[in-house]
Structures are given as structure tokens and as C-alpha cells.
Amino acid sequence: MKPDAETAMPKPNPPLEELLIDAEADDAQLQPPAVLQRPWLLLLGLVLVALNLRPALSSMAPLLGQVSDSLGLSASQAGLLTTLPVLCLGLFAPLAPILARRFGSERVVLGILLTLACGILLRSSLGSVGLFAGSILAGASIGVIGVLLPGIVKRDFPKHAGALTGVYTMALCLGAALAAGATVPLSQHFDDSWALGLGVWLIPAVVAALFWLPQARHGHGKHAVAYRVRGLLRDPLAWQVTLYMGLQSSLAYIVFGWLPSILIGRGLSPTEAGLVLSGSVIVQLASALTAPWLATRGKDQRLAIVLVMLLTLAGLFGCLYAPLGGLWGWAVVLGIGQGGTFALALTLIVLRSKDSHVAANLSSMAQGIGYTLASMGPFAVGLVHDVTGGWDAVGWIFAVLGLGAIGFGLKAGRALQVGVVSERV
């Protein structure tokens, strides 16, 4: 009989690092000497790969108005343009474990980095067709890599997985910040060419692929031992983690996709709006690293979830309604909140899982379903703006998503674990 999630209570407050250690004998036997002897190269590769998982998303927002004017896109079409990559994050996330079993995680990451570069190149060419097709390809690529990297961290750095998950999250935020702040100046440097401003972000993807090449050559290869996890879709706690992930992600991708347009509508220039988004994302670096550590010091994560979500909502409403004189302060509050919400979402996946195989499947569920749900937020913002002709009504979307995230976060933040186990097959 499947254990009830409400009664499957672990010891309170175990350190995050202990929950990440799952040193199965088969994984240890598969550990290649090249990786053991050069962990710094693997770590550098992980950071470079993580840096590429947000620029394709955050680089579009500061140029969205210019792109829309150039191609004649309506606000709804622009909303679809911001929605498609996020939707692909969810739709293609379940493909990651299938590809990893067949080819090995390291080789899949290398191949998908190259498809990411192709998507960025396609997005910058062939007009509106290339723009939408490239956005789909880029979103799909990010969705696959995003599922695989946490598993690689947990497998190859089990004693330092908590700290390295923080480093991985910080690299994600840094990549988003760089793209948000630099894309408009880059496009201006190239004679106001939005296509070149967007296309330049294929260079970091190619560089990351070159540094990842040794891992693809000497990595684990396809898995020799398979594990099966059953019952996650019937587990209430798994759904609570998934819905918290999806709702907080929806707010994050609204910020990536629409915050510069909102600020431009309030009177900022595209460069200024991009810098505000970049500054807010840079602030996430600190809270993304500290929030999980602080959250695991208490009896559970409920208080931390409520605090970071309230900060996120305060920052969003401040950017939307408050006088522009205090805009940078609200952007900082928003960054602190959203860095914490995202990092806690990743942390919950680990804390609510009994072993690394359950965590991998819960990660696939939370990101697959969660990001699919999250994609509706940016589309709703574009639709509301198209209908109302302004941004004031967007505040209702913020409120519904934020309060929903708090509600499911209070459930997911309890010191429980999902009532499923992994079975060796």
C-alpha cells in the first residue's frame, strides 16, 4: 500500500547536503576517471551551460516593442512570442530523461547546446517565421538542459550538491541579467539591428559547448541501471510542489517577457527599462544563494515561501503603480523576492524526495507541468494589454498568481516527503 504523504514525515530540518547524497553503487562504478581527476573542468562547464539557460528568454523583452513594430506584431502576437519559449520549457522537459537514458546526460547537454545556438540564430533571421520557430527551438532546448543539469550536480558533487545548486542558480540569474541589460546596447551598436542584438547570444552557447566537449567524450554514457518511480501523479504533495513551481515561474517569466514593456509604457527608454530588469535579476544572485540555506534552518519552508512571495508581489506592484522616483528600490525588492522563490522551488524538489531518482522524476514533473502552466502568465498579460490598451489591469494577474503560489507553497513547504519510492528494474 502506498504510504500517505501526510504521514511520511522525515526527521525535521535535515541539512540540504544530506538529502542530496545518494551514492548508489552503480553510479560510483560509472564515475569516469577523467571526471574525477578534473572536477574543476566539469564545474566550469556546468557554470557556462547554466549561463545560457536564460539569455534566449530575457534578451527579447527590452527589444519587444522594436521587434513588434518592425514585424507588425499585435500585442497578442507579442504575448505569444513571450509565451512560446516558456511553454516549450514544460512540453519538452519530459524528453530529457528519455534522451539521457539513451545517450547519456553529458552527450545530450552538448547536442542540445548546439540546438540552442541554432534556435537563437534562426530567431534572428527569416523574419517573423524565423522569430517564432527559433523561439520554439530555443525554449525546447532550455527545457531539456534545465532538467538534466541538477541531476549531474547531485551525481558528481554529492557532498557539495547544496552549495553547487546555489552556484548553478546564480549562474542562471547572471545569464538572465547580462542578456536583459546588454541586448539593447548591442543592437544599437549594430546600427539598431534587433536581429543582431538577439543573435549575438548564440556565441556564449557555442563557447559553452566547446568547454562541455570533454564531458561528452568522457562522461558516463547511457545508464546501465534503470530505476522506476511510480505514483507521483497521484501524490498530493507532488502536485503542490509542481503548482508552486508553476505559479512562481509564471510571475518570473512575466517579468522576463513584459517588465521592460511595462516600464517603457510608463515613460522609460528601452535602454533604461532593460537596465532595470538587469539590475533586478542581478539582485537575485544573493537571494538565490541564501534563501535555501536560511529556509533549511527552520522546522519547514512555509515562512520562507510566504516572505519571498510577499516581497515579489511588493516589487511587482511597485514597478507597476508606484512613482518612478522609487523604481530602483522596487526593482531591488522584486529581485530579492524572485531569487528566493525560484531557489526555494528547486530546493523543495530535493527536500520532498526520498532519493535522487525520486528527485529526478519530481523535477521532471514540476518543470514539465509547472512550466506549461507558467506559460499562460505571459500570454495573459499580452491579451489583457491588447484588450485594455494599458497596463493597469495586469496587477490583477500578479495578485491571482502570487496568492495562488502562496497557497500551494504553504502546502508544499511542510516538512513531509512524497509517498513514493524508486524501484530498480
Please give a structural write-up.
This protein has 20 helices and two strands. Helix content is 76%, strand content 1%. Strands 1-2 form a two-stranded antiparallel ribbon. The protein has helices at residues 16-20, 25-30, 33-37, 39-51, 55-58, 64-71, 75-92, 95-103, 105-123, 127-156, 161-189, 194-199, 202-218, 236-265, 270-295, 302-321, 327-351, 356-374, 376-388, 394-412; strands spanning 227-229, 422-424. Helix 14 runs antiparallel to helix 15. The chain is globular, with a radius of gyration of 21 Å.
Would you spell out the secondary-structure blueprint of this structure?
Blueprint: H1 16-20, H2 25-30, H3 33-37, H4 39-51, H5 55-58, H6 64-71, H7 75-92, H8 95-103, H9 105-123, H10 127-156, H11 161-189, H12 194-199, H13 202-218, E1 227-229, H14 236-265, H15 270-295, H16 302-321, H17 327-351, H18 356-374, H19 376-388, H20 394-412, E2 422-424
Antiparallel strand pairs: 1-2
Helix pairs in contact: 4-11, 4-13, 7-10, 7-14, 7-18, 7-19, 8-9, 8-10, 9-10, 9-13, 10-11, 10-18, 11-15, 14-15, 14-16, 14-17, 14-18, 14-19, 14-20, 15-17, 16-17, 16-20
Keywords: Membrane, Transmembrane, Transmembrane helix
Transmembrane segments: 40-57, 77-96, 108-126, 132-153, 165-187, 193-213, 237-256, 276-296, 303-324, 330-351, 358-381, 393-410
Organism: Pseudomonas qingdaonensis
